[in-house]
Amino acid sequence: MEHADGTETSDPEASDGSDPDPDAADGRDDAPRPEGPPRTMLDVREELTPMLSQYLDLCVAHPDAVVLFQVGDFYEAFCEAAEEVARVCEVTLTKREDSTGTYPMAGIPIDNAASYLEALLEADYRVAIADQIEEASEASGLVDRAVTQVITPGTVVDDELLSDATATYLGAVAGSGDETALATVDVSTGECQVTSGAEERMSEELDRLAPAELLRAPDAPDFDLGFETMVTDADPGTFEADAARETLSAYVAAPDSVVGSEAERRAVGGLLDYAEYTQGGDGPLEYVSRVRRYDPERSLQLDATAIRSLELFESRSPRSGDTLLEVMDETACALGRRRLVSWLRRPSVGEREIRRRHDAVAELLDRPMARETVREHLSEVYDLERLVSRVSRERADARDLRALKNTLDAVPEVKAALSEVESDPLRDLRDSLDELADVRELVGEAIRADPPQEITEGGVICEGFDAELDEVRAAEREGREWVSNLEERERERTGIDSLDVGYTQVHGYYIEVTNPNLDRVPDDYTRRQTLKNSERFYTPELKRREDEILSASERADALEYEVFAEVRADVAEEGERLQTLADSLATLDVLASFAAVAAANDYVRPEMGADAVEIEAGRHPVVERTGGEFVPNPADFSRGSVAVITGPNMSGKSTYMRQVALIAVLAQAGSFVPAREARLPILDRIFTRVGASDDIAGGQSTFMREMAELTDILHDATEESLVLLDEVGRGTSTTDGLAIARATTEFIHDEVGATTLFATHYHDLTELVEDLPNAFNLHFTVEKTEGSDGNPDVTFLHRVADGASSSSYGVEVAELAGVPPAVVERAREYVREGEDATPADADGDGGSDGDEARGSPDDDASTGESATPADAQASANGRASEGTLAAYVDGIESDDAADGPSTTDAAADVLADLRALNVAKTTPLEALNALDELKQRLDERDRNRD
What we know:
By secondary structure, this protein is α/β, with parallel strands linked by helices. It has 31 helices and 27 strands.
């Protein structure tokens, strides 16, 4: 097994239970590890006490795991495992001694094990739980123990270790190249899916699903994973074609009808074999009854970058709750929460399916009473998917079955609330709600309304359900009634008013007489116990009744457990019906949640299947909930596919781009959207290149990472895709960055045709609209006034408008951000110097192909306003692009040539220095200083000429 930190341990055992070679385990050269058999015990294996020998055998059988060994009410670990458990779980390290030596020991309480197990999983360990599988009272010698579960990050099934909102996936990869297969299973619910495709696509799918644990077949690629996971090199034999087919055949009658290739069979076969191993290895997991093949192309594809950038599930800021999921989650039960995550992670591309979801949301929106009644009853619904898993694995207790009954009680109420619905999807959902009246009746008649947690100590089964149990209970009850009346009878018989009848677990029933009354004790009393101030006795009849009561009680408890197990098995047989019901309830919950959010936030139904994105008064679903007053903005791509967006930082460019993408995600997930109106095409993918990050460990700089993401977009985007680009090219020199940004825009426009929002501070890009018929300019408006200090005050209006921005207002943004006044004022001086150095009457060509530099992003420096689309506008505003500067230089040369040699030498020196300037390696401040120096030299030349 390969851990996330790159260390390795041995492979998990095959499910046949054969032991590995202990000598091999003992022959490792690396430092002792908590997993596997302790070396100190291996050295004295034949001399260990029976209990420690049993522990060692289990460690040998599970060399990849930390074995927790039940001893009474604790799970204990020994030697290196104990030291690590004590460190990770912060428990006391003790010791155990026997004739072979002293061994470190640490334990965790069984009744409160969840938090300690979670700590071990987070520390990247597998944990093998070795339970006592027989009662200590029935054992002849050492209590038998066995590993009943191997807990790993991908195979957690206990509710305390699971999140209601998300699935925990175990993944498996087999094959390579174009035949790479990926299978996943949620062991807690039984959801099992498999897909295949090119290696690159499966890598994207892995990043999107982010399984908590990943199994690798011997021929699987070594993916560069973008998420944290436990990577396991599973038993290679389980991925062989014949073995995998045999495993899969236990779940699917005709495996070839479900999976599409041998690689898929091998991936899902190896996956399920490992899942069986972790759950005790007793055979197929009966609740995994629906193995499905899916095609990623049949959903809106959101890679891991897009999911992170759009903040679907995790916020990039420290504030909690700033995610799309938090905004949209008005679900009433755990089933709905997980389904909501699934729909947001994988929105539909099927127009009919999307329309049906919208139809259902529309009717639930129009029927508020029905919607709220449905949501009220759904709040009573238990997590059926995980319950079915627990029932099938024989781990459900009596309270679980009562929770099942409460869930089934809610189903008729939900159906009644939907009795008058008219839309086809809601009617279909209503009709699919199986009330499972037989199961509800069975559990209601069998299990008491408020049963105890422990199912082996009685008080679970209702009276009247099982005749034999009732008879045994009657005998027990009759005996207890006889005892309860004994005290009164004996007081009358003996005349001892202080006589008491009681019971202790150690001594059983007794008659207690105080010392002053001992002379009145009858002859048939037999002394049982002497106390300080009294004596305890029993009679032959009391002893007989005691034996009958205890025998009946033990028999009743045992019989109750047998009856409970039969009821649980009967429920397990209806697992598929319960899973189908869970599926319908989950879908209904999400649709009702969508309607509730739409009602609360004024969402509208989008019109799907349009030729272009057209949104009127669109809003960002998260920002409008977490910020102040939100300014809605339109998005109209009916006039072109590429929008070049300019404007200062803080003006709302990124929010605007993301809101367009989120509206599309919500629409295709089946939700209404935050807008006045929306007409949307069915998108196939959403790509985002937003924000800066690096991967130093992987050898990638910020710019390299940016270019890698851009490469994926340019290769994979289609005419049906939505592309968000923010500041492409900013990670390198101005010349190179602008060239990349310009070429990217042209390529997307000419070759790809994707709907694209390109936010940039390269104002020269706005000129592209003159050459690209399907491109147009947008900018975010700013209100500029003169402040009391004579410097401009700016107000960001967060409104989008046609055309290009006139400035980036970098210095003003810096001032608003709290940059020290001295720095802000000095920056303004540099800006003014830069503007003064630029002739107001220059009329450049807007940037020729031979320009050294075309623009300057204000991420690098706020050096004044960059070029606008029209040269005339540049001249009118007293600004010049670098193309205009080139024209100015040409003017100097012509001027000097006309004036003759007297001034040409000085100008030639300036031009030589200007041409020698390496713009690509010049910082903004150095450029301003160089420009100021050149300007002074030219001014000196002009004075000499005058």
